[in-house]
Design goal:
The structure holds two protein chains of two kinds.
Chain A (H helix, E strand, L loop, with lengths): L1 H11 L1 H14 L9 H22 L12 H24 L1 H4 L1 H6 L6 H27 L11 H25 L2 H16 L11 H6 L5 H14 L5 H32 L1
Helix pairs in contact in A: 2-7, 3-4, 3-7, 4-7, 4-8, 4-9, 4-11, 8-9, 8-11, 8-12
Chain B lengths: L3 E12 L3 H9 L8 E13 L4 E5 L6 H9 L6 E6 L3 E4 L12 H11 L4 H15 L14 H12 L6 E4 L8 H16 L3 E5 L3 H7 L2 E6 L2 E6 L1 H25 L1 H7 E2 L4 E10 L2 E2 L2 E3 L4 E9 L3 E12 L4 E6 L7 E4 L4 E8 L7 E11 L6 E15 L20
Parallel strand pairs in B: 3-7, 3-8, 5-6, 6-7, 13-20
Antiparallel strand pairs in B: 1-2, 1-4, 8-9, 10-20, 11-12, 11-14, 14-18, 15-16, 15-17, 15-19, 19-20
The chains are: A mainly alpha, B alpha+beta.
Chain lengths: 267, 406
């Protein structure tokens, strides 16, 4: 019931949402000669560094895949790109009410537009860089084929989790600014506590078990499995995370709804 | 359409002694609240019928802005409900949501969508918006290259592109040049003529009188008067006068400021001054009304001669008009200590232009206060001149004028 009302008002404000997504995107490239081209050039640089430089110059080798020149690059990007999208989502969401504080205080519009705007603009960035990554995979003959589709549900779970965490921290951050500060710190730890640049096998047995406490671990592992081994993910472990993400999202959503009025007073 | 029903709304802001207190309250909802409620509106109720034009007046901090924000939906009331029949447009913060790096045209679309218009509606109104804003080719330039007047013009044009059922106007309109002010007022009048309900917040009594057929006076979050603009404004003036008196008493009492406000050797002292319309004390006068200044004096020492003078200054401190009893040939001679005298300056027609004025009174000997200054009371009265029904003019004075073709 509440959800349908929410979606209807979001739909009514779709023009406002898309205009703001476009604005957030364009804003970075106004006054530049190349304009939107930078939106491709920046991630392209990243992909080139992670692939050509790592594969060609530093030549790290994944255990058991010494013959594949690009194995580490594929592995690194498979984990790093979704992680970056996740961190971006949480980080930008966390300050969204402060960022749009002036507008919230003075204009009347569905507040739920704001998380949607952030989510969509993160999706745009991720869409660009991930397309480049898939192109690279095709180029070096490592494209996993139809297994790639399995990344979609994995990404949806990640999105729900990021949205829940982002909305929770965004709401709390209005009242307790410490929350926003701590998000950056936690994400830093999260990055190194998740096997993204390293392989979990280099860790001692005991530490490997502890990895399961990290909700991002099954998600990142799933991506790495899909793109490196062309294998379907372990749906069982993902289901647990999906349930967790959904619970978090509902809780954060309820907190946000209950406090939406108070947020305006506090800004 | 355009009916507004404000039903016993109250608004309190929470004040916490510290962030830790807030955290404690969040973590333990059962515990006694640790915040202090700061009430800015208390039980405000009123109904506005379609097509009415209502002025909301009150001092700064009376709760006007909060009330408007609750009506527009930007802020939620702590208690009570607001129902509005139809679409609201609010001219509260013109140009809000404009983004400097985007062109006027792009901003029109974004601001329009924020106001709840569809893209098709905005596209349909685009030409009209451009025409009304009169910014020419600038419409396709980034908004950061606009003058502030251009921004306001464009913002006003967007906000009023489609006639709303309820239009909320804040003082925002006093920006922009005179030409555009008139143009925008014209549009507001036009909307009202077509049936739009108006809610108008202003400190300008003239604007309220000329635009509204009803006024509501808010004081400390409570509506204390609701009725015809003239009556409510009179009441408001009385409140202002009371506050002014209080303030002057405070200022006079404070020794450090005494010299600024009051000076003189106290040989004669002004006890009280007043502005009278008939027998009523007022602080707002229509152009051309017959009013009187009343000055009550106490003589403290025997005096050969007592002159009473006044000086009217405009709000910028320019001398507008002043005279005294010596010039008028009615100074008193041979006064004894302890006598009380009342003097009235009567104006058959108070021909000052619309605006705020302060009046300084002085008691002295001879023609000027430099001779022997008994008492000099700076800005003893503050008054406002509002437009009269038959008097339309601009400037600081009203010269009775006849026109005839020859």
């Amino acid at each position: 019931m509440l959800q349908t009302v929410m979606f209807r008002s979001l739909w009514a404000y779709r023009g406002f949402i898309f205009a703001n997504v476009r604005r957030e995107f364009q804003q970075r490239y106004t006054h530049s000669l190349l304009g939107g081209l930078w939106a491709v050039l920046n991630p392209l640089t990243l992909i080139v560094i992670y692939t050509v430089i790592f594969a060609g110059i530093m030549q790290p080798r994944l255990a058991g895949r010494e013959d594949q020149a690009f194995a580490y690059s594929v592995y690194l990007c498979a984990g790093l790109l979704p992680w970056t999208a996740f961190a971006e989502l949480v980080n930008r969401m966390q300050s969204v009410f402060l960022q749009y504080g002036n507008l919230i205080k003075k204009a009347s519009f569905p507040r739920s537009c704001l998380p949607v705007i952030v989510t969509l603009s993160v999706l745009v960035d991720f869409g660009i860089i991930f397309t480049l990554y898939l192109t690279f995979l095709l180029f070096v003959g490592e494209f996993p084929g139809w297994v790639t589709l399995a990344a979609l549900p994995v990404f949806l779970i990640q999105l729900a989790f990021g949205l829940g965490l982002g909305l929770l921290t965004a709401t709390l951050n209005v009242f307790f600014r410490d929350v926003g500060q701590s998000v950056g710190v936690i994400l830093q730890f999260g990055f190194w506590l998740t096997p993204i640049v390293y392989s979990p096998h280099i860790l001692p047995e005991s530490a490997q078990t502890l990895l399961w406490l990290n909700p991002l671990y099954p998600l990142i592992t799933a991506y790495q499995g899909i793109f490196l081994n062309h294998a379907l993910p372990d749906w069982g472990s993902l289901l647990v995370i999906a349930a967790l993400a959904l619970a978090l999202l509902l809780w954060a959503g309820r907190l946000f709804m209950n406090r939406a009025g108070e947020i305006v007073d506090e800004l | 359409m355009g009916r507004l029903n404000v039903n016993t709304i109250s608004k309190a802001y929470k004040r916490y002694p510290s962030q830790w207190a807030r955290l404690r309250e969040w973590l333990d909802p059962q515990a006694t609240p640790r915040h202090e409620a700061h009430w800015v509106l208390r039980g405000v109720s009123f109904e506005v019928a379609p097509g009415e034009a209502v002025g909301i007046i009150g001092n700064n901090g009376a709760g006007k802005s909060t009330l408007l924000k609750i009506i527009t939906g930007a802020t939620q009331p702590t208690q009570g409900t607001v129902t509005v029949d139809g679409r609201i447009a609010a001219l509260l913060e013109l140009g809000m949501g404009f983004h400097p790096d985007f062109t006027g045209r792009q901003n029109v679309f974004m601001a329009g969508q924020l106001l709840g218009f569809s893209i098709a509606e905005i596209a349909g109104q685009m030409t009209a918006i451009e025409d009304f804003a009169e910014i020419g080719d600038y419409i396709d330039q980034p908004v950061r290259t606009y003058s502030s007047g251009m921004q306001v013009r464009l913002a006003f044009s967007v906000a009023t592109a489609i006639r709303p059922d309820l239009l909320i106007v804040d003082e925002a309109l006093s920006v922009g040049d005179l030409y555009f002010q008139h143009k925008s007022f014209e549009r507001i009048r036009q909307f009202h003529g077509q049936g739009t309900t108006l809610l108008f917040v202003s400190h300008s009594m003239g604007a309220i009188k000329s635009l509204c057929n009803r006024a509501i006076l808010l004081d400390q979050g409570v509506p204390i008067r609701d009725g015809a603009p003239d009556d409510v404004l009179d009441y408001y003036n009385a409140i202002i006068a009371r506050q002014e008196t209080d303030q002057h008493i405070r200022q006079v009492e404070s020794e450090t400021r005494r010299s600024v406000i009051r000076s003189g050797n106290q040989a004669a002292v002004i006890e009280a001054v007043d502005l009278l319309l008939g027998e009523q004390s007022v602080r707002a006068v229509q152009i051309g009304e017959a009013v009187r200044f009343r000055v009550d004096c106490v003589i403290q020492e025997d005096l050969d001669e007592l002159t009473v003078g006044f000086l009217i200054r405009d709000r910028l401190g320019n001398d507008v008009f002043g005279t005294n009893t010596a010039y008028l040939g009615s100074s008193q001679r041979g006064l004894k200590a302890g006598e009380r005298r009342r003097l009235e300056f009567a104006f058959p027609a108070f021909n000052l232009g619309v605006g705020n004025y302060s009046i300084t009174f002085a008691l002295h000997g001879g023609h000027a206060h430099v001779n022997a200054n008994y008492d000099w009371w700076n800005q003893a009265l503050v008054l406002q001149v509002v437009p009269g029904s038959d008097f339309q003019a601009t400037g600081v004075s009203y010269l009775p004028t006849l026109s005839h073709w020859v």
